Amino acid sequence: MVAKRLSGVPASGTVALSNLVSHMKLQGIDVVSFSMGEPDFVTPHNVIEACKESLDAGFTHYTPSLGIPELRKAVASKAFSDNKIHCTAKNVLITPSKHAIYMSAVAFLDPGDEVILPDPSWVSYEADIKLARAKPKYIPTKFDDNFIINPDLIAEAITPKTKMILLNSPSNPTGSVMPCETVRAIAQIAKENNLMVLSDEIYESIIYEGKHHSIAAVHDMFDRTITISGLSKTYAMTGWRLGWAIASEANIKALDILQTHTISCCTSFAQKAAVAAITGPQDERDAMVSEFKKRRDLAVDLMREIKGIEVNVPKGAFYLFPKYNSKVKSEILCTKMLEEAHVAATPGSAFGPSGEGFFRVSYATGEEQIREGLSRIKKFMLNL
Ligand code: GLU
């Protein structure tokens, strides 16, 4: 009974693993979870207060499908000041970031179109491209290059069917941050070949070294780029399901058609809270990023003590993507690690063919969990 478009599209590896971990914990198993990319902090208190106030004021109904005007304006100002993207509220659609990616695939890809994307990259890109009946075309990235995509390989992969380049910096799962010259080179390729760019910048605020560069800020790139970001990672707001897409007015209209037929609008009181998140004090956000940096350094140090594992120092996001020295497939390795050591990590192969031989560890969890989990991985690897 299931439609053909779902064939070859498995459930999200990250979400499925997280569901399994929840189930194991309910059974009383002491699992250390490095699975989901989810900050363990509480949402900043001013955001929670703003949400409560809007509930008390009865702000509990539909909003305009594009989002409440003050939030669209706040996102546009933030994009202008932080990302140097020249846009106004008219260029903003408020929507959950993950939904924005899916809607972008459906709104801008025709069957048979090709989308160039880095390999490895986040599990849902390939799925969303396939659900739009388009084709993912992976560009391998290497451990030795810190997983930075090589623009020459993008240029070589272009065919008459190529419609879009999908980028994600800082990257999930590798934590790599694209340098300015790479962003510029890719922009040039997109312009020369009349391609769209879908730029997922959800980890834009979680950068420890270097700077974030939005491709939509490069000259003449705005009209061909959909920039996606949101609140989940930056403000520990994963449960609020709120983000945005920034694009030309014409492209926002196309996305809004889908929004009106799918979710209608985002949760009203969550949108009010989002205004507080973006325009309010940023000290809790900054403290979270400093804490992530400490955890990254700790996790890298502990990981490097493990025989048979190599890891580089990611400049952003909150993932390590270690390489292990064994012929065992990453899916089997992670299953055994979960069953025997009670540590949940995502197999590298879930992120694309170049992810084989790696696994992903989300260190958006407490220091104690990092110490305990890595000590278990150490013992597990000795017995592998
Ligand atoms: N993006 C996060 C992750 O990769 C959250 C789960 C998901 O939506 O995939 O773990």
Keywords, separated by commas or semicolons:
globular; alpha/beta; 14 strands; binds glutamic acid; single chain; 384 residues; 12 helices
Instruction: Give the neighbour order of strands across the main sheet.
Output: 2-8-7-6-5-3-4
Number of strands: 14
Measured by DSSP, the beta-strand proportion falls in: 5-15%
Number of helices: 12
What does this structure look like?
This protein has 384 residues and is an alpha/beta fold. Helices cover 41% and strands 14% of the residues. It is built from twelve helices and 14 strands. It has helices at 13-26, 45-56, 69-83, 97-108, 123-131, 151-157, 180-192, 249-261, 268-279, 283-304, 330-341, 367-383, and strands at residues 32-33, 92-95, 114-119, 135-140, 162-168, 196-200, 225-230, 243-246, 309-310, 319-320, 323-324, 343-344, 346-347, 359-362. The protein has a seven-stranded mixed sheet with strand order 2-8-7-6-5-3-4, with helices on both faces. Strands 10-14-13 form a three-stranded antiparallel sheet. α2 packs antiparallel against α9 and α3 (69-83) runs parallel beside α9. The N and C termini lie far apart (42 Å). Glutamic acid is lined by residues 12, 14-15, 36-37, 98, 122-124, 172.
Provide a quick synopsis of the model.
The protein is of the alpha/beta class and 384 residues long. It is 41% helix and 14% strand. α3 (69-83) runs parallel beside α9, α4 (97-108) packs parallel to α5 and α10 (283-304) runs parallel beside α12 (367-383).
